[in-house]
Amino acid sequence: MTRLLVVHHTPWPATAELLEAALSGAADPVSSAILCLVGFALGVIGRDYHLSSQVRDRERRILLEFPAVAELLALAVAAGEGPVAALDRVVRRSGGELSRDLARVLADVRTGEPVGDAFDQWAVRSGQPLVARFAQGIAVAVERGTPLADVLHAQAADVREAGRRELIEVAARKEVVMMVPVVFLILPVTVFFAFWPGLVGLSLTSP
Predict the structure, then answer these.
(1) CB of 70 within 8 A of CB of 159?
(2) DSSP state of 96
(3) Coil, strand, or helix at residue 185?
(4) Which ranges of the chain would DSSP assign to H, the alpha helix?
(5) pTM, 2 dp
(6) For 94, phi and psi rounded to 5 degrees?
(7) Can you tell me the distance from the alpha carbon of 179 to that of 191, in angstroms, rounded to the nearest whole number?
(8) Are 94 and 58 in contact (CB under 8 A)?
(9) Residue 102: which of 78, 76, 79 has the closest Cα?
(10) pLDDT of 149-207, one tens digit each?
(11) CA–CA distance, 97 with 110 (Å, rounded to integer)
């Protein structure tokens, strides 16, 4: 009776042995250094990806909050409140990433920073074109005495229009992705079922 010997190989034997040797202190310095460098590189890449995803999520939340906050500011200013009082009311009545940014602007104003300069600094550190335009618009309106309510309403309308354009672009990209299974799966099967009976009939009628 012949007995078969089956040997199971681990997928990464060299890596496992190197890791075991490094943990036990029996590995040579070069192997340990390579293992440390690989782990460091993987850690940096993973952390960078995590931070990038957090930044994207924060920017998305800010854009979602933006029209409502701009309208609240416009209503407060139209009701007769000044820019600082309106900003304070909106910060106290709202929550979210944009509200926290406005709270920082309000703190700068209360420490003696001019309103226009505080909004200009927010425009610089925001990193988002829509937010930067909004902050610069408020700063220019405060410095030149332009009706602030009209500026805020216009900014809110611009943000809504930008959100609508983004939805249209996302829908267009999704439409292209949805065409992939139609072209490469459904269409070939349809063509196959359309021509297969004819091919079978031809094969049966041929001599």
Answers:
(1) yes
(2) S
(3) helix
(4) 13-24, 29-78, 83-93, 97-110, 115-126, 129-144, 148-181, 187-205
(5) 0.59
(6) -120, 170
(7) 16
(8) no
(9) 76
(10) 777 778 778 777 877 887 788 788 887 778 878 778 888 888 888 878 777 777 767 65
(11) 20
